[in-house]
């Protein structure tokens, strides 16, 4: 690997069960500091499960998750946020009955540095200007695209060192998808490390430095985005054909 | 006594009764919000508060100090109930949790009966709270305990409003009530939120129990059952799990009960509770999620 920066997140042989079903069958992946890594693959391949397990919502059955040199498999979700991993989950999962401002405030609930929190919310309004106009509005009354921006901002308010993104384009109008991905590109320029799950493979590979293709709970393929973009094997992995 | 005076008197009564229901119902809603558990033991926490005051005043503690201690005792009882009974089965199926909550009720009530017997004992009220004022030449009577109930409810609900809209913990409780996984994902310490929810809800139950006993003049180990049932109805009317809904539901129920007795002939009003529940059923047919949550289904 040509990436000189240190490994920030390392997932080794991760196994996760849902009841009797083995959702992840030994996934290994690395994310280096400052890197954007995409997880792509068909529905049910285990992309969201991987993110949920990194965030501590699902317990690993086997394997290890190392963040910044420390094992975090099975650690409480709130502790994982404090350690520096925030997630913008699939379907946004905003607190619809709370205002935009309160959603942002809860995004920073693990932090105590008031001045820095204030600076970060100003940064959010630069990145997503619409949120500033909507501050007093209930999150549930925003449009899909606005909600997605709020979900990203809420995750960023935790001042994460690693941002997990689950389907940021889902249920968002095409014009706003472009806006959201240009915001993500801006975050990347600023050095944010991201692990991105995205159905839209073109968008994902355009943003990401590297990608892992998951198929039925395993890594089918991995490599630099530019290489994968033209690879027929990616399409095969999606369709579930033998690779 | 003119018609108007009579109506005014009934309004005072309705607000006073509604305040009690609201105080109990908000506690039910707070706990249901974070735990999706119908906490039947909530009524027994009321009893703990009321007994605490009765016992402390009995040994010579000044009434206001006893009230504060009673509320604190209720909060501690709620904390212990969560710790001992509910936390070990937090991830168990709903039926198991519901039955546990009923079991806690029976245990507390029966221990109460063992220790204090089931016969009612006098609730000692200082003279100043036993007085009444008259208006319109005696047409309207305000008892001081009625006024105290209304005033304390008003203040404590304002405090609650501040807590759930201005503090991170309060906002976190509402967030966890809406979406538990999302609450985990933003880094809220859900365990801590549940503990705080029980303490806050139980403190309100304690206050409600003290005021309830003060109005009734007696305490008794099973005194929590009726207010719990009524508060449950109030919370459902308002939208179960919604704190604002519980408040609105409490006052609606209080008004409904008072006005049924006040304005319907006694042959009808003796069926007060039956009428109240019939209204509840009819209401739920129209708005199954309650007043403030029209789109949400209630799941017990």
UniProtKB/TrEMBL annotation, chain A:
An MF annotation (GO) of this entry: ATP binding
SUPFAM superfamilies: P-loop containing nucleoside triphosphate hydrolases
Annotated keywords: Amino-acid transport, ATP-binding, Nucleotide-binding, Transport
Cited PROSITE patterns: ABC_TRANSPORTER_2 (PS50893)
Pfam families named among the record's database cross-references: ABC_tran (PF00005)
Superkingdom to which the source organism belongs: Bacteria
ABC transporter domain: residues covered: 9-241
GO terms of biological process kind: L-amino acid transport
UniProt-listed InterPro entries: AAA+_ATPase, ABC_transporter-like_ATP-bd, BCAA_Transport_ATP-bd_LivF, P-loop_NTPase
Family affiliation: Belongs to the ABC transporter superfamily.
The name this protein goes by in its record: ABC transporter related protein
UniProt source species: Mesorhizobium ciceri biovar biserrulae (strain HAMBI 2942 / LMG 23838 / WSM1271)
Source lineage: Bacteria, Pseudomonadati, Pseudomonadota, Alphaproteobacteria, Hyphomicrobiales
Automatic annotation (TrEMBL), chain B:
Localisation: Cell membrane
Pfam families documented for this protein: BPD_transp_2
InterPro entries, A to Z: ABC_transp_permease (IPR001851), BCAA_transport_permease (IPR052157)
Gene Ontology cellular component annotations, sorted alphabetically: plasma membrane
Transmembrane segments: 12-35, 47-77, 98-119, 139-164, 193-214, 234-262, 274-292
Membrane association type: Multi-pass membrane protein
Keyword Transmembrane helix: yes
Keywords: Amino-acid transport, Cell inner membrane, Cell membrane, Membrane, Transmembrane, Transmembrane helix, Transport
A Gene Ontology BP annotation from the UniProt entry: L-alanine transport
Signal sequence annotation: none
GO molecular function, one term: L-leucine transmembrane transporter activity
Record CDD domains: TM_PBP1_LivH_like
Family membership noted in the UniProt record: Belongs to the binding-protein-dependent transport system permease family. LivHM subfamily.
Entry protein name: Inner-membrane translocator
